[in-house]
Amino acid sequence: MNLLWLQASGCGGCTMSLLCAENPNVFDTLADAGIDVLWHPALSLDSGADVRALLDRITAQEVALDLLCVEGAIARGPRGTGRYQMLTGTGRAMLDWVRDLAPLARHVVAVGSCAAFGGVTSAGDNPSDAVGLHYEGSHPGGLLPPEFRDRAGLPVINVAGCPTHPGWVLETLMLLASGTLGADDLDGYARPRFFADHLVHHGCPKNEFYEYKASARDLSEMGCMMEHLGCIGTQAVGDCNIRPWNGSGSCTSGGYPCINCTAPEFENPRHAFTQTPKLAGIPVGLPTDMPKAWFMALASLSKAATPERIARNAVSDRVDVPPSLRKPRP
User: Fold this and answer.
1) I want to staple 30 with a disulfide (CB 3.0 to 4.6 A). Which of 35, 38, 92, 163 is the partner?
2) Which residue in 233, 223, 214, 221 sits closest to 299, CA to CA?
3) Domain that includes residue 235, residue range
């Protein structure tokens, strides 16, 4: 399958993340899946007239376009012209290229939350009028209309994340290459369910502290970060703690709260990312599917039953109290 990768308005962080794929690396994985990268602006050697000729051949349908991957939001400004971001050397806006290429592609993949929903590029006053491919924030219809479907009948596939996990990108591409990713395999925001059916909370190394509501108050402490430090891993989709980044890490295992970067409009939380908004001392955001009254009752019981080891370690930057030694039963 032929893959064309375009980088629109963004930081390029999803490509940098993709290069962290290991055992096997990104190039071996794509080759083994039978995916031929026609061009990637940061990884390919071709430039200038050669790339323009390739794009012309694709639009003339002389070269098949099986996978169109777009990284970064699409800048529509000024006044809908898209000329805030031109595809260098072509004299045309990135907006125009994506609109022309998307209907020709067998599959269209938005790589990262900027391409999916607008992301950080659209944060604040959004002076460039940036938008996702198929969504504007949480609303269907971004650069492409809500009714857009690729030649295989699928919407734009949103491999969200900021940056997105290299495994999510590669697994999505491999499933598409094998013809085994269908409409039922996507969630309500067209994110692949193999990662979107999980919560970041699943497998979090701080879960013992969460169970007892033993909370950290500073970023250097070991406790759960939900109550005071803005962590919303109990609401955020992603298998980040099941499938560690680079084989070993995640945001929460590194001591930073989950900010729900796989979701639309995560970039405008209306409070500091490391701050938990509260009403009468109670966190506003509660775990997914959890009634507030039940959570408060369970939290009170949990805090009352917190072992000293967990309470002390929660507000420490290292293990102060190790687990108790118990003799084996005869």
Assistant:
1) 35
2) 214
3) 198-318
